[in-house]
Amino acid sequence: MGGFGDHLIVTPDMVDLSRSPLRRGVSEPTFVLGAFNPGLTRLPGGNLLLMVRVAEALRDPVRGDRVRQIRWTPQGYVLDARPLADVVMDDPRFFTLKGTGDSVIGLTSFSWLLPVELSADAREIVAIHYDRAITPCADYEQYGVEDARISVVGGAWQMVSCGVSSLRHCTVLRRSVDGMEYRPVGVVLDHQNKDMALFHGKVGDRFFALTRPLGESYLAPPPGSAIAGGPSVNLAQSPDGLHWKPCETGGIRPRRGSQAARKVGGGAPPVLTPEGWLVLYHGVDRDGAIGAYRTFWALLDRDDPNRLLHVADEAPLLEADPALTAPLAEQMYLSSPIVFTTGIAEAGDHYIVASGEADLACRISYIPKSHFA
């Protein structure tokens, strides 16, 4: 679904890798595996800012009998090599180490964040700010910075992203006073939680956020339950945006028989509407190894977000559109239909919604507000 014609606004070929931060150490040829999953916010002057995840990969990751991987260090970027015989390479996004007993993987690309300034209606690119790229600031981001979500809370822009490292898989906060220049604050969640998103505004005097912690196993719900079990959207609250306490109730669960029965997770930061907090979240079905990723929506109570007022998971709000990526067919590397919503901005009678399309490009959608009334 889309209100006024969806389009791709950033594609891999638009990224100038001669200006990539990885040039500080990596001289070998690289390419953009994907430019996707963008954070979105409106700047003080009215333009929009996309914070695009650029997944940059080596053209030749395998050299001889070794597979190589990009890693950040305080001195610059380096290439680590390990024996090819020690890994399984059956997914374009990562390789798996043999004989570890656990799911220990290495990424085939390195992600950094590229600020792309758009016109107020998100139809044109105004500027690409390579000089303000977001790159690792500490060892907890040694393998990259992924999937930004930007919220305006307490008069400041709050951006959370995923820190990817062998030390921890964490959520990192950066703050800005102008929406453009972001200062790292540090780790705010220390468990594997890829889908944190702060609410656009406080609830009373508290910060609220969507979270989605992952685990190796999940307990089955009672027989006859409408809940399917598995990864779900939880809530947390904080007095300062730094110290978070999980809420004991509330959240959004995958439901049996829906197109989101495999797992659900946060998408865009929740925005306040007359009906309550609007949440655009992703749901995954059980088709294939990866599954189809679609965007659904829910409403939470404006004064008590632990109260789920409405969930619309019978039909998707957004789903992958093959027509959008048809011109990029030679660059597609995943066969599963994927749309992964990560940003939302108000625009009069509609919302501008930013998503990753096919883990490849940035998609803009226009959703009438009347759809949620």
UniProtKB/TrEMBL annotation:
Q: Which family does it belong to?
A: Belongs to the glycosyl hydrolase 130 family.
Sorted alphabetically, the keyword list is: Glycosidase, Glycosyltransferase, Hydrolase, Transferase
- Protein name per Swiss-Prot or TrEMBL: Glycosidase
- Stored Gene3D superfamilies: Glycosyl hydrolase domain, family 43
Supply the SUPFAM superfamilies for this chain.
Arabinanase/levansucrase/invertase
Q: Which InterPro entries match?
A: Glyco_hydro_beta-prop_sf (IPR023296), Mannoside_phosphorylase (IPR007184)
Species whose genome carries this gene? Stakelama saccharophila
Q: Name one GO molecular function term.
A: hydrolase activity, acting on glycosyl bonds
